[in-house]
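Example 3.2
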Amino acid sequence: MDLVWEGLRKAVQMLIQGEPEVYQIAGLTLRLAGTSTLISVLVGVPLGSLIALGSFPGRRLLATVMNVGMGLPPVVAGLWVTLLLWRSGPFGRWALLYTPAAIVIAQVLVALPILASLTASALQQLDPRLAMQVRALGASRWQTHLVLLWEARLGILAAVIAGLGRVLAEVGASMMVGGNIRGETRILTTAMVLEVSRGQFDVAIALSFILMALAFVITGALTWLQQRERQL
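Structure, written as tokens:
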């Protein structure tokens, strides 16, 4: 317990003293997590809608792939992104490996299946008669889809929270494709791994408290919004 309290004390000290490296790492963590989550939402919500409301060959296969992807180990995602971005790989000429962009790609790969699968699940839980009623009122196919997305907004928001949580907690893929380069690709999770390997457990615990505080504030705000919508 002494080590935990020392880590908490050090976290407060880092924030109060305004250590530039800590703020840089925390800021990069938020930027990458926000970008990854936004991309996952922009792709995952339409994909989940397609799975839930569409009718096309391979629909069940796509749904299965997304469900399997929810349990995809981050290191597997990191491995495949590394192979694709390696200088001898198909996208090697873009020189994205060991850059923040590579981390975003890996994080999207682990968060996208969560967004897509949970969005599909939220839509499929709606009363089937709702779509029939909306169409009976003269709504087009796309208007019907928008109405259903609005009605499933609480479930979709839960999917966003889950995806964001997965991104914030991800370490294996980020370490593999980002390289944990100081000042460039080092984020809170990879910084913790580094400090543990150095034996600096108090610093690692301090960074974990900072990460948990960020996650608490962000997910807390989203949860408040979700519960507020539920009460309306």
